[in-house]
Amino acid sequence: MRHYVGGGFDASGVPFPLVDPVTGRVVGEVPEASRELVDRAVGAARAALRGPWAAWSPEERARLLRRIADGIERRAEEFTAAECADTGKPHALASTVDIPRAVANFRAYADLLAGRHERAWNTPTPDGRGALNYTVHKPLGVVAVISPWNLPLLLLTWKVAPALATGNTVVAKPSELTPGTACLLAEVIDEAGVPAGVFNLVHGRGADAAGQWLTEHPDVDAVAFTGESRTGTTIMRAAAARLAPVSFELGGKNAGLVFADADLDEAVAGTLRSSFTHSGQVCLCTERVYVERPVFDAFAAALAAGAKALTGYGPMISAAHRDKVRGHLARAAADGRVLAGGGVPDFGDARDGGFWIEPTVLTGLPEDHPAVRDEIFGPVVHLAPFDTEEEALALANAGPYGLAATVWTGDVRRAHRVAPALDVGIAWVNTWNLRDLRTPFGGVKASGIGREGGDHSLDFFSEPMNVCVKL
Ligand code: NAD
């Protein structure tokens, strides 16, 4: 594993161990960036803003993004292997979702850049000669990108692509648990011919390490962060000291609503996906499902059967995270009912040393129970019945988070009534995680600040400036 700073690769720093979540074994080490290296990365990014990069036209930047996309695509199998090694996620998931989406992220922002235009206004003046107002978009400057372990390449590139598209320079810090694909990305970006210092990568932990040093750095102009809400609070405090803008994609406790008029087979299949994809370690995963009472028993039985039949899922990312999920399960089993899972699979091989949890369906817990209220971020879903649409909305909208929700209904009027009334950034009706990269993506309440996707990211990463010319 190497850092990439000022156009050069660097393996300096005290190493920390890299653990394979599938077996729990140490499989490598990662060099922890020193404060001096973080300073050097920020310095290189600052210097690059004044270098040849400043003169690159949007078309040249779009071509760069396409070369990066092509580079990832050419080495897709290597990227997939690195993503699976770091996260333990199934090959079928990484090869069809994570890696193709990283390619798509760069291509989407190359396309969006081509369609972007400046605005202009003809302004009347008393002397009749008028004035011309026009807006130019400038880069924010040096941007810190801090990303989590669950979708390491997808979420890193989701920020790096628009940041580079708009002419910024970047210092990226991936999660210390999943550095592999970020290293490959640095190689691809280097080969794509980006000027030295435009993209920099430093490895390290968050608190009292590279993450904190970056977010507190006086020469970092903005912070784009995806991770836990609690970390967001810490980062916002650091950025507030110098009034640096932040873009935050944070935690969630996403609700699903299943109405009696829904296609029940579709709702069950959709909820199995939305609750158990990547073993529940996707920020958009559904952790609590409210089911209209007449179909509650049928839905619960089918979902439990489906969860028991799931195979080919991956482990939790770390021993600490596994222990957190198991803590929730122990309390939930004591206070409610376990309809499926709840334990640790017994493989009888090296995987028994890894961080596995069975897909779990719970019911019978009160709404203020920690397993229903707190983000678990594991393969755990709680089911509860509801009687009216109003009650369903109130249940879904309760709590501190507001990232995503799913609604399962066969009534088109209800779909349009319920979905917009949900206090979330993203609502899916009769589907889950169907993405169009031009649409706004993000959360309300403790789930985030700002929106990513399409023009929203391009707007965050650029500073609009108005020029007024008296004619
Ligand atoms: P995390 O907050 O622990 O870590 C995320 C990143 O922040 C890592 O790179 C970490 O090293 C860094 N970090 C940690 N403490 C820091 C500090 N004090 N200063 C600066 N950087 C620091 O989150 P995680 O456990 O890696 O990811 C899981 C969380 O991310 C879940 O809450 C999940 O919901 C959320 N998430 C949200 C979205 C979204 O789009 N809303 C997407 C994916 C994950």
Describe, in plain words, how this protein is organized in 3D:
Its EC number is 1.2.1.85. Pfam families: Aldedh (PF00171). InterPro entries: Ald_DH/histidinol_DH, Ald_DH_C, Ald_DH_CS_CYS, Ald_DH_CS_GLU, Ald_DH_N, Aldehyde_DH_dom, OHmuconic_semiald_DH. This is 2-hydroxymuconic semialdehyde dehydrogenase. The protein is an alpha/beta fold. It has two domains: 3-250 and 447-470, Aldehyde Dehydrogenase, Chain A, domain 1 (3-Layer(aba) Sandwich); 254-436, Aldehyde Dehydrogenase, Chain A, domain 2. The protein is built from 15 helices and 22 strands. It has helices spanning 35-49, 58-74, 76-87, 91-114, 152-165, 180-191, 210-215, 229-240, 264-276, 293-309, 319-335, 370-373, 389-397, 412-418, 454-460; strands at residues 3-5, 8-10, 15-19, 26-31, 120-123, 131-139, 142-146, 169-173, 199-201, 222-226, 246-249, 254-258, 286-292, 337-340, 360-363, 380-386, 401-402, 404-408, 426-429, 444-445, 448-449, 462-470. Strands 14-15-16-13-12-18-19 form a seven-stranded mixed beta sheet, sandwiched between helices. Strands 9-8-7-10-11-21 form a six-stranded mixed beta sheet, with helices on both faces. A three-stranded antiparallel beta sheet has the order 5-6-22. Helix 6 links the parallel strand 8 and strand 9 (199-201). It is globular. The N and C termini lie far apart (58 Å). The mean pLDDT is 97. The chain binds nicotinamide-adenine-dinucleotide. The site of nicotinamide-adenine-dinucleotide (NAD) has 32 residues, from helix 7 and helix 8.
Low-confidence stretches: none
What's the count of strands?
Answer: 22
Provide the number of structural domains.
2
Strand content: 15-25%
Total of DSSP H or I helical runs spanning 4+ residues: 15
Please name the fourth-level CATH homologous superfamily of the largest domain: Aldehyde Dehydrogenase, Chain A, domain 1
Active site: 249
GO molecular function: oxidoreductase activity
Family: Belongs to the aldehyde dehydrogenase family.
EC number: 1.2.1.85
